[in-house]
Amino acid sequence: MPIEPAPAGASALPAGPFAGPEAFADLIRSALDAAAREGWREWVWSDPDFADWPLGERAVAEALQKWSAAGRRLTLLAERFDVFERHHARFVHWRRMWGHIVDARVCRGAGLPAVPSAIWTPGWALRRLDVERCNGHSGTDALGRRALREALDECLRASRAGFPITTLGL
């Protein structure tokens, strides 16, 4: 994969280390606002379960709605998605309306790679290195984005479809 330069708006996003759950949540909110404002075409969200992401907030749902458009693509990668119905109802509602631009994938099982906690875009990335303490790094560093993308691709190759838009019962 060639290293891409950061788009103009990516440099406005915070870069450097972050520590704590509030700093992590603020970075996610900032990324959503930038994506909506700048019309990002693709990104990948990755987390073992997304339990502590602020995806149930009204502001997050509004930013996702502003970002949503034809030609956009969001890939979700997790070990499990069971938290969404309980904690992220607004996101679940948005996903039902915009499921055609969301690809949700599950990577879980013996011998499969660990799912990183991260956001990847062609021009900016965020990665939690210590999920328990919510410590990590964000920025536009091309080599860091490339390394993260390679880790995500490894998980995506081993993944299967997950988090269906509807659940059919018998």
Number of helices: 5
Shape: globular
| Rounded average pLDDT | 89
Strand order of the largest sheet: 1-7-6-5-2-3-4-8
Structural class: alpha+beta
Number of extended strands: 8
H/E element sequence: EHEHEHHEEEEHE
**CATH homology superfamily:** Endonuclease Chain A
Oligomer: single chain
Total of domains: 1
* CATH topology grouping: Endonuclease, Chain A
Q: Give a quick account of the main beta sheet: strands, pairing sense, barrel closure.
A: 8 strands, mixed
Which CATH architecture?
A: 2-Layer Sandwich
CATH class: Alpha Beta
- Low-pLDDT stretches: 1-9
Rounded to an integer in angstroms, the radius of gyration calculated over CA atoms is: 15 Å
Could you characterize the architecture of this molecule?
With 170 residues, the chain is of the alpha+beta class. It has one domain: Endonuclease Chain A (Endonuclease, Chain A, 2-Layer Sandwich), CATH 3.30.870.10. The protein has an 8-stranded mixed β-sheet with strand order 1-7-6-5-2-3-4-8, sandwiched between helices. Helix 1 packs parallel to helix 2. The longest helix has 18 residues. It starts with 15 loop residues before the first strand and ends in a 9-residue tail after the last strand. The N terminus is likely disordered.
Task: Give a short summary of the structure.
With 170 residues, this protein is α+β, with helices and mostly antiparallel strands. It has helices at 21-38, 58-67, 83-87, 89-97, 142-157; strands at 16-19, 42-46, 73-78, 102-106, 117-120, 125-130, 135-139, 160-161. It contains 5 helices and 8 strands; from the N terminus they run βαβαβααββββαβ.
